């Protein structure tokens, strides 16, 4: 069975400081992992994805994430937060060895950025 | 390139009414799914399909019905609307897991449904 745990429901940072959003996953098979972002009253946009290539994945808007199999983690980071980063972020897992397996979402982390 | 198109964007229903949320994709994706989003719950899977003629239940299927007669379309039917179905609904499509490296989902813009 697959599952995703986002360890913080809400993270607050100041503009210009680093961002860390934590995600742990559980999967019986080699997973694909994703981070999606949702701005208020908007749809979901893919930030980045891990699909068994490089373990450090770079995404859009300066975000990156590192896949750590030994820790079953896929934390999202950004060196310097911008006001426009304020949004909800979802960590998502999909198993690589099961046809048609659904994407399983974490409960989300709301990122607040103050000036 | 339209991607995933969901209609309507907003809907208000009375308890007991039925309706269909439409979802269409033009990317020839095998896999389509419906999610509902509620505060603090993330997105929960309602139903999914791995191809035309094949559907299966997700985490929260009760009160919903789906069919997949074509690759492009995957409508979601509310059989008898209840206030507990007030939510934001998202349709998503993707390639199957066999297409290595291209397994991310593309989402529609969402349908905000209120049942009174």
Give an account of the 3D structure.
The complex is a heterodimer of chains A (115) and B (116). Chain A is globular and about 40 Å long. Chain A is mostly beta strands. Chain A has no helices and twelve strands. Chain A is 0% helix and 54% strand. With 116 residues, chain B is mainly beta. In chain B, strand 5 (42-51) and strand 6 (54-57) form a beta hairpin.
Task: Provide keyphrases for this structure.
heterodimer, A: 115 residues, mainly beta, six-stranded mixed β-sheet, four-stranded antiparallel β-sheet, 0% helix, globular, B: 116 residues, seven-stranded mixed β-sheet, 11 strands
Question: How many strands of chain A?
Answer: 12
Mean pLDDT of chain A: 90
Residue fraction in strands of chain A: over 45%
H and E order of chain B: EEEEEEEEEEE
Strand content of chain B: over 45%
User: How confident overall, as mean pLDDT of chain B?
Assistant: 92
Please tally the helical runs of chain B, counting DSSP H or I stretches of 4 or more residues: 0
Q: Helix coverage percent of residues of chain B?
A: under 10%
Helix-strand pattern of chain A, N to C? EEEEEEEEEEEE
Q: What Rg of chain A, in angstroms, do the CA atoms define?
A: 14 Å
Assembly state: heterodimer
Kindly name the structural category of chain A: mainly beta
Structural class of chain B: mainly beta
Could you give a short account of the major beta sheet of chain A? 6 strands, mixed
> What ranges of chain B have pLDDT less than 50 throughout 5 or more consecutive residues?
none
- Biggest interface and residues each: A-B, 28 and 29 residues
Main β sheet profile of chain B: 7 strands, mixed
